[in-house]
Amino acid sequence: MGDSTRGPGRRRWFWLAAATLLVGAAVAAGTAALLVDISEKKQEARNPFYRVVELTDDIEDPEVWGQDFPFQYDGYKRTTDMVRTRFGGSEAMPRVPTSEDPRTVVSQSKSDEDAGLRTIWAGYAFAKDFREERGHAFMLDDQIYTERQRVVKQPGTCLNCHGSMVIPWRKAGDGDTMKGFDAINKMSYADAKALVKHPIACIDCHEPKTLALRVTRPAFMEGIKAVKALQGIPDYDVNTMATRQEMRTFVCGQCHVEYYFQGPEKRLVFPWRNGLKADQIVDYYEEVGFKDWTHAESGAPVLKAQHPEFEMWNQGIHARSGVACADCHMPYKREGALKVSDHQVRSPLLNINRACQTCHKWPEAEMKARAEEIQARTKGMRDRAMNAVVALIGDLKAARAAGVPDASLEAAWKMQRRAQFYLDFVEAENSSGFHAPQESARLLAESIDIARQGQLLVRK
Ligand code: HEC
Ligand code: HEC
Ligand code: HEC
Ligand code: HEC
Ligand code: HEC
């Protein structure tokens, strides 16, 4: 048996040896190529920034930063995209430009959509013009041209969250940011606006040498210091003490928060001394005796809640699990060998694959359905709370018309103030309940209860 196979066996050995050599050579060549590729990619990853420009704290224009970081700049520019989701995003509404307002596209109006909003904000500029928010590229123009500018004389403080402020503050304070902050806050909007050139830019979130994240807004530095003090951490300095993961939320928390203008200096303050929950914020406003305006129909001293995304996120399971704003709104994406943060800040529901599926192993349709179910339930409860608050305002209005003196309405006014703030806190929070479903539901339930109790009180 052995002999009969010897000839062909020998040949087979020869071919086997030759093939092995060939394969070996091919593998070696392949491996070498792969190693070169990996090492090139490692090099890219290690030194991903081929600096064309030496960035400094005097360079404000994002286009210049974009020469060093083209992928991030490209994403940043795409914040002009307008795409609607079921409860969020934004819709591009064409408009005829005028000399007063040159915008050719705006987002859909919210105050026109819901008569309830006009009622709860009666006598306040928001009843005049309140639109769906859109991408960061529009923040400066939308603020300059909102009709709310024409109804009320707005202060320079408004620019804190709508412009690139690092350089204007430093210049206005002769090198001292804090002094510049105080100086610009009390200016008229028109005077302050003349100092501001860009919407939020790279310099507002990044240190120019290392590109490390940084907090640049004094109001957040002070607000988060108060919050940390409540947690037993004294003298908190956000830029030296925050973890990197915290910074991935804190940079957003500089603007996506409830705020008010304190005193005649119109200083920007975040009302967090008692904590970040809506109840603690109303308690704070009671303590300092603050009201945004007097309600035109009921006479109550009332409050307007504004975009409390940071506060609401803080009450949710994602915050508890250490998930940052940037994890969902600026998820990583690959550009060649680079892992780049998506600087097209937008609704994560337009980007579920990167925004959610890195952590959740469910199909895209299922993730979307889970988010929308939370939002639809929140909306349903929100409509009921709206009905309850509007009914209370109706009763207060009727009581005044019937000659009930203001002094005997004070207790019910307090209830309108609180019920309305809780409702508005959920309404103004732009995730429609997603950031903290249980907390949103709790606030709406309390709002309904307080408003209905207020009605019982007025009717007595
Ligand atoms: C776990 C993911 C997740 C985290 C973390 C998160 N968000 Fe969101 N956010 C969402 C989803 C989902 C929506 C709803 C989007 C929609 O309805 O289209 C949303 C909506 C928003 C919106 C409105 C967007 C729109 O297109 O209408 C803003 C603004 C926002 N979030 C800011 C923040 C900020 C600021 C933080 C951190 C304090 C944060 N988010 C944390 C998932 C997240
Ligand atoms: C603490 C930060 C902050 C300050 C101060 C601030 N804004 Fe905004 N503003 C935001 C954020 C965040 C959004 C997007 C979320 C939203 O619209 O709810 C926004 C959205 C807007 C919009 C677009 C949506 C709308 O409401 O029609 C306008 C207009 C606007 N702001 C005007 C103003 C004016 C006027 C002032 C001064 C009275 C001001 N903002 C002060 C953070 C701020
Ligand atoms: C609203 C804040 C914000 C603005 C404005 C912003 N970035 Fe970022 N940037 C981030 C966050 C958050 C990260 C993630 C950082 C981390 O994980 O440590 C990041 C990361 C980066 C990185 C590190 C690599 C990466 O992609 O993760 C670079 C480089 C960068 N940004 C460049 C820019 C440039 C250039 C601009 C202006 C065109 C810009 N950024 C504007 C928030 C911002
Ligand atoms: C300097 C203040 C400021 C900072 C910092 C900031 N935002 Fe915004 N953001 C705004 C304003 C103002 C708008 C609304 C602009 C408009 O409607 O014209 C907005 C809009 C948005 C939207 C709506 C986009 C859309 O397409 O509908 C999202 C989502 C958002 N911001 C998330 C974030 C996240 C996440 C961060 C942190 C990485 C962040 N923002 C940091 C002020 C800020
Ligand atoms: C960085 C990881 C991470 C990302 C990104 C993330 N999640 Fe989550 N998500 C979690 C964790 C952790 C929990 C808590 C689950 C637990 O502990 O059992 C959670 C819980 C949830 C829940 C249950 C909420 C509740 O109140 O019980 C929903 C719904 C959800 N995520 C949807 C989403 C959606 C939609 C996105 C994208 C917009 C998203 N998640 C992005 C980590 C993440």
Summarize the structure.
This protein is mainly α.
What does this structure look like?
The chain is mostly helical and 460 residues long. It has 2 domains: 22-50; 62-362, Flavocytochrome C3, Chain A, domain 2 (Orthogonal Bundle). Helices cover 52% and strands 5% of the residues. It is built from 21 helices and 8 strands. The strands form 4 sheets. Strands 1-2 form a two-stranded antiparallel sheet. α2 packs antiparallel against α3, α7 (166-172) packs across α8 and α20 (410-428) runs antiparallel to α21 (437-459). Mean pLDDT is 92; it is low at 1-9 and 34-46. The structure holds heme C (5 copies).
CATH superfamily of the largest domain: Flavocytochrome C3, Chain A
Please identify the top-level CATH class of the largest domain.
Answer: Mainly Alpha
Terminal-residue CA separation = 113 Å
Q: Which sequence of strands runs across the widest sheet? A: 1-2
Mean pLDDT metric: 92
* Category from helices, strands and their pairing: mainly alpha
